[in-house]
């Protein structure tokens, strides 16, 4: 009980994206979507729901996978914080692709809310026998009839021949879905199902938007990675408000805003480095990164701040590793381990360090922090391997005490 060892699970590959869903203090919920080529009459891609219980240290599949429509595959996924119409069923924004093009939309995981409640009720006595021990890896679900669940289209943008790359629910305005394409960025109001803002074509023929993040401190600001640059847009304007060039030697691939400290942003890219920036420097003479993290041996695919404590940062990459970092010196509450035997430089370096490393067997596609607990995070590999891990107790005490 209350184990801090990792827990694993195997999903049908390939898995292209993931996100956490809002559950409760006893159940951690995560979504995973697949992107296999669908042959005529073949098995469809799907959204997989997994729950994690700290009491049993087990990952659970509460029902069968939710099939994606037609022959589509998932490109990007972002879960909404708030349910529609007071429902307990999660809503998720997704970009789907098939042979005819791309589409973005909002989908309701009908029936999942009920199954999440049942998981909580069954923590002490799992009568359906669907839990997976932390030492095993299985994608099987109990032969007992699982709760009914389907993927229902709440709203879909008209299909586009222009490639769509990534979608994200706005960090501070949860009724706004952000979508990037080779034509630029667009914001859609989920309630009215209409476009509320867009940029003109911002990209050269050589680069696409590889990620986008909304500022949790300013609802008007969106930052995306484009080529080797970070471009920040103000939704009250059309042109980029701030640009930092050369953030990556090859291609910037991912980024995230600090949830607690304004103007702070972390980027990752193909040079294997994660870099933390202060956006208060001018575009004409940008300052160097405040901190550079060097441990990945290949491209970074995801960088994510802990949504509760910005001293913690997780990264993952195509080298198969998922890393947990302490970035105390650039957080809202610096953790300087001062003692009489250390000078200032040594104490600063001890406040910024690699805390935990999880090595996988294939490229890691993404990492997500639990939305109901500060100390649990999950990563997924292209081949379907899911790993849930915990922030070490020593790091928790340094933050809380």
From TrEMBL:
It comes from the Eukaryota. PANTHER family: EARP AND GARP COMPLEX-INTERACTING PROTEIN 1 (PTHR14205:SF15), WD-REPEAT PROTEIN (PTHR14205). This is EIPR1-like beta-propeller domain-containing protein. Belongs to the WD repeat EIPR1 family. It comes from Triparma strigata. Gene3D superfamilies: YVTN repeat-like/Quinoprotein amine dehydrogenase (2.130.10.10). Residues 119-145 are annotated as: Disordered. GO terms for biological process: protein ubiquitination. Residues 131-143 have a biased composition (Low complexity). Residues 183-325 form the EIPR1-like beta-propeller domain.
């Amino acid at each position: 009980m209350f184990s801090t060892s990792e827990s694993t699970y195997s999903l049908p590959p390939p898995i292209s994206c993931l996100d956490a869903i809002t559950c409760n203090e006893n159940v951690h919920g995560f979504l995973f979507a697949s992107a296999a080529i669908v042959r005529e009459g073949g098995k469809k891609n799907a959204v997989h729901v997994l729950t994690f219980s700290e009491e049993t240290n087990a990952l659970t599949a509460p029902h069968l996978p939710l099939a994606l429509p037609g022959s589509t595959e998932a490109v990007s996924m972002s879960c909404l914080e708030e349910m529609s119409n007071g429902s307990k069923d999660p809503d998720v924004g997704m970009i789907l692709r098939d042979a005819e093009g791309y589409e973005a939309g909002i989908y309701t995981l009908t029936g999942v809310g009920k199954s999440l409640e049942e998981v909580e009720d069954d923590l002490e006595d799992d009568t359906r026998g669907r839990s997976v021990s932390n030492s095993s890896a299985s994608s099987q679900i109990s032969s007992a009839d699982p709760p009914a669940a389907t993927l229902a289209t709440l709203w879909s943008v008209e299909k586009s021949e222009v490639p769509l790359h990534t979608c994200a629910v706005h960090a501070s305005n949860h009724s706004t879905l952000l979508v990037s394409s080779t034509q630029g960025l667009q914001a859609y109001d989920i309630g009215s199902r209409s476009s509320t803002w867009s940029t003109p074509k911002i990209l050269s023929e050589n680069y696409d938007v590889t990620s986008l993040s909304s500022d949790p401190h300013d609802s008007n600001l969106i930052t995306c990675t484009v080529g080797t640059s970070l471009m920040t847009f103000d939704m009250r304007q059309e042109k980029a408000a701030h640009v930092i060039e050369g953030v990556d030697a090859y291609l910037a691939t991912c980024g995230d805003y600090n949830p607690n400290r304004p103007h702070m942003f972390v980027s990752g890219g193909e040079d294997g480095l994660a870099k933390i920036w202060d956006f208060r420097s001018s575009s004409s003479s940008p300052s160097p990164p405040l901190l550079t993290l060097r441990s990945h041996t290949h491209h970074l695919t995801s960088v994510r701040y802990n949504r509760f404590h910005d001293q913690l940062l997780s990264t993952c990459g195509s080298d198969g590793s998922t890393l947990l970092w302490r970035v105390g010196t650039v957080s809202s509450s610096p953790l300087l381990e001062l003692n009489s035997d250390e000078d200032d430089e040594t104490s600063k370096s001890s406040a910024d360090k690699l805390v935990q490393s999880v090595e996988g067997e294939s490229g890691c596609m993404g990492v997500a922090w639990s939305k109901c607990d500060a100390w649990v995070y999950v990563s997924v590999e292209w081949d379907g391997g899911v790993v849930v891990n915990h922030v070490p107790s020593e790091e928790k005490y340094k933050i809380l005490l």
